[in-house]
Design brief:
The chain is of the alpha+beta class. Helix content is 24%, strand content 31%.
């Protein structure tokens, strides 16, 4: 009977839907007159009304601008073009979020990976497979520990 419960627990652990797992985040941006970011979780859900803090290259300790994303996870601002360099944007909601750095200068915007962004957000399939195997191995090891024969002392 104990083995039945063990295999039932193992099956439930493997079958946990993705939406139950922890949230990563994506922060994307596009170049217009302003910088527009689109913040979303790894599963594609927009980070609605998330806190946004923008830091200018000239003063990384003091927020240059604070705001919130809209219901679609979008936030726009116009950087000071005289302040060239990497503008850091931090997006947070309920303990989840990320930071991205957007270089501003020479008339172009290019992404500089500094945390979570659209190019590197989330986990790859191989990382997810390794994590699932590690969790399964942990469950199996724990179950085998408790199912071992009791030694006589």
């Amino acid at each position: 009977m104990n083995r039945f419960y063990f295999f039932l627990a193992l099956l439930m652990a493997i079958a946990i839907p993705k939406s139950v797992l922890a949230h990563g985040s994506n922060i994307e941006y596009q170049e217009t007159i302003a910088i527009t970011i689109h913040a979303k979780y790894d599963d594609g859900t927009p980070m609605r009304e998330a806190q946004v803090v923008v830091y200018a290259p000239s003063d990384r300790a003091t927020p240059w601008l604070k705001g919130t994303t809209d219901k679609s996870g979008n936030f726009s601002f116009i950087p000071n073009v005289d302040d060239l360099g990497d503008w850091d944007i931090k997006v947070r909601q309920s303990g989840h979020g990320g930071i991205t750095s957007i270089p501003v200068g020479n008339g172009t915007l290019a992404i500089n990976n500094m945390g979570v962004n659209s190019a590197s957000a989330g986990y790859t399939s191989s990382q997810k497979l390794v994590m699932a195997a590690a969790v399964g191995w942990g469950f199996l090891g724990t179950a085998l520990f408790f199912l071992r024969p009791k030694s006589e002392q």
